[in-house]
Prior knowledge:
The protein has helices spanning 3-14, 19-28, 51-54, 57-72, 90-102, 104-109, 119-128, 130-135, 155-160, 216-225, 239-251, 266-270, 305-314, 325-333, 339-342, 348-362, 382-385, 392-398; strands at residues 17-18, 79-84, 110-115, 138-139, 176-181, 190-193, 196-203, 206-212, 235-237, 255-261, 263-264, 279-282, 285-287, 298-300, 303-304, 318-319, 323-324, 372-378. It has 399 residues and is α/β, with parallel strands linked by helices.
Amino acid sequence: MSLREKIIQEIRASGPIPFSRYMEMCLYDPQHGYYSRKVEQFGRAGDFYTSSDVHAVFGRLLARQFEEMWRILGSPERIEILELGPGRGLFARDVLDWSEKKFPEFFGALHYSLWEQSAGLQAQLQVTLERHFVAGNASFPQGLKLPLPDELHSAAEAVHARACATDAAAASSVPVIVFANEFFDALPVEVLSPWGELRIAEKDGRFVETWVPATTDSLAYLGGYSVHAEDGERVETACIAQSYMTQLAASIQQGFLIAIDYGYTRAEQLAGRHRGTIMAYRKHSVSANPYEAPGEQDITTHVNFTALAAAAEQQGMEVEPLLTQSQFLMGIGERNQFADAFDDCRLPQERAKVALQLKHLVTPAGMGESFHVLVASKGIAAEQVARLSGLAFVSRNKR
């Protein structure tokens, strides 16, 4: 049975399904979901690029930032990094290898947890990071589970029903750094318009859209963190992403959280931007039709950083002003003039190639301005957090 047939079977058995359920099945169905299939979704041969596909300097710069966070925390004997949705493990490999080479004391204290629910990607991670798995420097955490749409009618119950983010670090004295790069954009959302909340029905083997009155949760989300759709518009409510952030923030006793994604703030929505951001990606082509190839294309939405920041703050985290990826990486790299990028270069041609790759990460024409960085902390003095090189542009703006 194909995924399309499976979705249609569920609709015929239970009636029209929420868009969040459709998106969840398309991306995370154990057999046919986009992230569950054993295919190469990333890089040149796949459907999209992430920053780690561009050059190892992305991981190297973040390794430098993680080491700085470790020192700000007082150089504890152990620190946990939890990466959400690590894909093929390129970023984790770059962080671990560079830390081992450049920051041996930090590496000696570091344990790297990779949260990945796809069995196929877990297998690939074990190949990419074989040396670190064998040495015990990397592992899969136990107890962290994606909140499903039908479990989120009561966000508080969903949060308290789950185990903490890592069985070793959370709810203990071990500090943790949670890192999420292009993770929240792939969590299921609901879609609302002036006609109500979207449901997916079926007619003659085709998916058709219907509308029902919006739920109380969706209306509360729009009122607090988003905007109500005007005529001809659609907006998303990311209650699942917000609940996930609540769970993560609650699990952190002391440490940091870094979320990097393309997204927006409520102020930008009020200005008329970022309304209706669902997109599908396949073979580096973009489409606004999420129904075209269930399970064979990535479905994403822009991230509502206002909602994520509020969820983190409600769990006691201090959230820094939102940065662009350009500001964040430039702050980390300028102290040593991006020596991390050029460390392996021996020829002028190699330096020129790396310079172009670095430019793609930090310039507006590449990923620099389209991606934003949310940094939050808990249990750390504000003056200590302000010392982070990645926040240099925030500090300058405050002066």
